[in-house]
Inverse folding.
């Protein structure tokens, strides 16, 4: 197994007082689905955004695919970002544009300023976008405007936009936080499927502990900017949960049933 | 508890009202403005208006002149608003929290917009008179500068409001800044921006009358001319022409707004 991503002593400070990440160390292997869990304000979003430099870490070292993320120049940053797809809690689509246009936006990282601004795409790119839309069950929505879609459909458009990038890794920042349980399941199944069939590494921030236990190969728990748990779902004991969330698992009202498949895995 | 809370709100509203009335009274005594006098002069003004300020058949001989000036004014208003919109868009992108390049440029652009916006169009007209003299160019520049200030501010707020979500998403794909502006910012804010430009054109047509009086151009100039000649019938025809054209422009822009949604 090759290491795709590595965090070495990464810290992030906002302003002069807010420490969002402190001394974070972990690594992610190619093809893994890793969940990042932790209470609100723990630094999960900050951590994900440090990987594609939407946020610049204050200190430490982030190695992605052999590249030193924190020291690369503008041109290489663009290249780095094309390899990293991202999906968001609020989908972050251009709502007034069609599904198809939104998905093609995933190709903009490969284009020069002028070509991107004019929105010229190759035929292969369009064909690939259509293919991905079909695989996500969106063939009927292709020409609809995004503001006419349901939340679950919007999130699938978000996934499609990330997939046309042909990324090595998919970052998902609370992808199901605004969705109902059944749409959540559809989205998580797609993420799992993407990970297994395309070998794309998936890093997903989650608030739902049961989902994290069900779907992930590994769980990273953070609390106040520190990694306090890093291991397989089966190793996540009540003690560990208490350490991550700062309170008793029973009091948290979490649905922590261990599904058999997860327990059997590995 | 709740009753108490509502009562407090009502009382504070009443207090606010009292303060307002107090200020109005104070201002009236200071300026020796008398409500009674001003109301009693209304009928007199009406009688004067009815007996002098209406177009006659005679004044219609000036109609072609008036239309020519009206056309000039409309074109200047539209041109100044649309050219200002292009500059305003660039400054708004620099100044908006979600699209700014860096804080220094953002502060600079906000500063410029505030300076231009907070100086009234009539002041700009007077200032520009010194450099350009009495011409329609002066009127154009005055309207342009005022439109630029207002539109920059309005555009900036529009761009801030459409939000940073999609912009962040496109940044994450590695898209170039220009791609983000044309593929996300513009589509999201276009209808709002056009709405502001239409509003600016309407405002400019109203302001053009005053600016015209000051800079000796357009419909304002011709009004001033007839008025000073005491040709009130022709002057009233000018006013009528302005009112009709504003109503027409308003209808057109309402139509465009609806068509866009
Ligand atoms: N742009 C910012 N400026 C200043 N402080 C910030 C900023 N973004 C996040 N923070 C702070 O950094 C800390 C971590 O925030 P972050 O958004 O990473 O948490 P999170 O784990 O994603 O929380 P949530 O589950 O609520 O999304 C919080 O204390 C937050 O207030
Ligand atoms: Mg977050």
């Amino acid at each position: 197994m090759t290491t795709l991503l590595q965090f070495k002593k990464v810290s992030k400070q906002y302003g002069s007082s807010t420490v969002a990440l402190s001394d974070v160390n972990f690594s992610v292997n190619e093809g893994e689905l890793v969940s990042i869990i932790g209470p609100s304000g723990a630094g999960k979003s900050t951590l994900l955004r440090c990987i594609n430099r939407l946020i610049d870490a204050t200190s430490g070292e982030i190695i992605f695919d052999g590249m030193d993320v924190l020291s690369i120049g503008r041109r290489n940053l663009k290249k780095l970002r094309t390899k990293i797809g991202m999906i968001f809690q609020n989908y972050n689509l251009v709502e007034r544009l069609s599904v198809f246009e939104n998905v093609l936006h995933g190709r903009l990282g490969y284009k020069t300023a002028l070509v991107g601004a004019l929105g010229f795409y190759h035929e292969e790119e369009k064909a690939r976008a259509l293919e991905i839309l079909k695989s996500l069950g969106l063939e009927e929505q292709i020409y609809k405007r995004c503001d006419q879609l349901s939340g679950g459909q919007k999130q699938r458009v978000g996934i499609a936009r990330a997939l046309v990038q042909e990324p090595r890794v998919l970052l998902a920042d609370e992808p199901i936080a605004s969705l109902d349980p059944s749409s959540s399941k559809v989205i998580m199944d797609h993420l799992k499927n993407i990970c297994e069939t395309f070998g794309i590494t998936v890093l997903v921030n989650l608030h739902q502990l049961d989902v994290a236990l069900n779907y992930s190969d590994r769980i990273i728990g953070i609390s106040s900017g520190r990694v306090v748990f890093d291991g397989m779902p089966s190793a996540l004991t009540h003690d560990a949960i208490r350490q991550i969330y700062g309170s008793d698992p029973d009091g948290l009202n979490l649905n922590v049933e261990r599904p058999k498949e997860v327990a059997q895995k590995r | 508890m709740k009753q108490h809370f509502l009562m407090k709100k009502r009382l504070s509203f009443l207090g606010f009202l009292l303060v307002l009335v107090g200020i109005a009274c104070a201002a009236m005594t200071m300026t020796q403005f008398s409500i009674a006098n001003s109301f009693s002069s209304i009928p007199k003004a009406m009688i004067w208006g009815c007996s002098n300020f209406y177009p006659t058949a005679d004044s219609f001989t000036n109609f072609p002149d008036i239309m020519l000036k009206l056309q000039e004014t409309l074109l200047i208003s539209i041109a100044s608003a649309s050219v200002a919109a292009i500059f305003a868009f660039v400054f708004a992108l620099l100044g908006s929290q979600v699209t700014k390049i860096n804080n220094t440029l953002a502060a600079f652009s906000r500063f410029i917009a505030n300076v231009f916006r907070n100086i009234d169009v009539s002041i700009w007209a007077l200032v520009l008179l010194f450099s350009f003299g009495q011409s329609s160019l002066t009127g154009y520049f005055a309207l342009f500068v005022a439109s630029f200030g207002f539109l920059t501010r309005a555009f900036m707020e529009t761009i801030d409001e459409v939000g940073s979500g999609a912009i962040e998403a496109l940044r994450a794909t590695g898209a170039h800044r220009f791609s983000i502006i044309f593929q996300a910012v513009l589509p999201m804010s276009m209808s709002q921006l056009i709405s502001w430009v239409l509003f600016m054109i309407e405002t400019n047509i109203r302001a053009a009358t005053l600016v015209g009086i000051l800079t000796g151009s357009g419909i304002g100039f011709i009004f001033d001319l007839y008025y000073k000649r005491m040709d009130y019938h022709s002057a009233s025809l000018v006013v009528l022409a302005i009112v009709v054209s504003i109503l027409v422009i308003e209808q057109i822009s309402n139509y465009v707004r609806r068509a866009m949604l």
